[in-house]
Amino acid sequence: MRPSARPPSIADLGSGTGFYSAVVSRDLGAERVLVADRSPDAVRWSRRHHREVTGREATGVVLDLWRPLPIVDGAADLILDVFAPRNPPEYARILSPAGAVIVVVPTSRHLAELRAAGSLLEIPDGKDERVIEQFTAAGLSLAGRRPVDHSFSAAEDQLAQLVAMGPSAHHRAEGEPVEARTVTASVEVLAFTQHRR
After folding, report:
1. FRET pair for 59, CA 20 to 30 Å: which of 3, 25, 45, 114?
2. How many CB atoms are closer than 10 A to CB 31?
3. What is the pTM (predicted TM-score) of this model?
4. How far is CA 105 from CA 116, 170, 194, in A?
């Protein structure tokens, strides 16, 4: 993102709890923040978390990321997509000319300990490359990428919450224990910008 005289506008698409956009908004001094998710509960949590972290209000909207977004062209200086569905053509449309899209994609090593225990679905190798292809086909350029790996210890209830957050929750028996104690978060952080002409 290029420096600007005004604080950036942020769109957190698939915001979940709003943790990431609240921290980024606070650190960048953003005054216009949109948190959007398919879940009304997630939008409420995101707005509350944003208020607690920044002391400012965020606009919240319930929407389906697979459909056309009710956002004007070029409105977002920074788009965040962390483990959420992606709509590259719409992201390209709403991104400002000097803006950036940050996409966080799990690698095949992400939460591998829970996968080994049978608690999560597999993540195919090369998912990041497929995401890059989707965004470049939509007219955006890969501006940077960074792998992030971090191992941490977690209590059983925290591990159960990790499993419940994603699509694996629909494939797991209710109340089935989660065995792992130390897990590794492994992601690829991808940054995209508009093609420079």
Report:
1. 3
2. 14
3. 0.85
4. 20, 20, 20
Contact 88, 134 (CB under 8 A): yes
Q: To which residue do tokens 């919240």 refer? A: 60
pLDDT in tens, the chain (197 residues): 444 567 899 999 999 999 999 999 999 999 899 999 999 999 999 999 999 999 999 999 999 999 999 999 999 999 999 999 999 999 999 999 999 999 999 888 777 777 666 655 567 778 889 999 999 999 999 999 999 998 888 777 777 776 666 554 434 445 555 555 788 888 999 999 997 64
DSSP string, 128-193: HHHHHHHHHHTTEEEEEEEEEEEEEE--HHHHHHHHHHSGGGGGS-TT-----SEEEEEEEEEEEE
Contacts of 73 (CB under 8 A, 6+ apart): 93, 94
Match 């216009």 to its residue by tokens.
32
H-assigned helices in 5-120: 19-28, 40-54, 88-94, 112-116
Other Cβ atoms closer than 10 A to 81: 25
